[in-house]
């Protein structure tokens, strides 16, 4: 009976074993033998490592370029090339390579700790270079920036941040309806909404009615996030059907909630005096929204860009912030704002907020 012996070891595997023993010359010889049948990504990655360990950094980069010519999306080749360029004292070239690598980086949950550390280092270098470029551009155009008003100046600064790669471009990401060609503006100019001052003037009255409501909330405050069973909850798992983020509706999808409105007559009358959107089955929606201490709302977007939202803070136990896109504002009692909720937004603090 013929019995086949164990298969011969793969030359690339043998080369890796040689590198584990710091035998660079032996590894390169084995790789020459492997490449006799044609260059491959696997042999190229091992050869680049051998050249790197042997101190031939330009040679390692050249081999990685051959690997990337075969597969431009080889993540480890990009990450390795960036690291070698850093070692060669070429951080700006490394940043360009790292940017491409980070775009295709696997989830860190699937990476070993050493790779997570490498990815983190690449991300830090990219962020530092973006900040350096942003600051350089701001200094270079300081005179032009000084000619801008407050709002135009903020817009100018954000444009430089996006150009430098320091911030992502702001975009609308509605969950349901995206009406084409509407502007993506995080916070809208107050001048478009002259009724805001009337709303803000009623803050003390609204707070008084809310506090009475909170003293005997009954079943009015219910979890704001309430997905039915079988629906993917994604980032809302911790808040789904949780009282940590609750709401009491005065209007919901265009329907007036008579019981809640009867308990807040002054607030209801004030709201009815404002130009709320009236659309059967859809709008307006008006709610008291409450967070328990240390509750975190994850970044999220709203349903459609054909509407805007108004927030008025009512109870602020401490400093709190709110981010929409690249813009973060401090909450101020008696100060409302209008924003596009189809742009990613989130509270900037875990302190209690009710508004």
From TrEMBL:
Every copy of the Aspartyl/asparaginy/proline hydroxylase domain together lies at 237-346
The reply on keyword Oxidoreductase is yes
- Top-level taxon of origin: Bacteria
Pfam families xref list:
Asp_Arg_Hydrox
Gene3D superfamilies from the xrefs?
B-lactam Antibiotic, Isopenicillin N Synthase, Chain (2.60.120.330), Tetratricopeptide repeat domain (1.25.40.10)
GO terms for MF: dioxygenase activity
Q: Which InterPro entries match?
A: Asp/Arg/Pro-Hydrxlase, Asp/Asn_beta-hydroxylase, IPNS-like_sf, TPR-like_helical_dom_sf
User: Does the keyword field hold Oxidoreductase?
Assistant: yes
Leader sequence range is none
Q: Which GO terms describe its cellular component?
A: membrane
Keyword terms of this UniProt record: Dioxygenase, Oxidoreductase
Q: What family does the database annotate?
A: Belongs to the aspartyl/asparaginyl beta-hydroxylase family.
Q: What is this protein called?
A: Aspartyl/asparaginyl beta-hydroxylase
Species the sequence originates in:
Brevundimonas abyssalis TAR-001
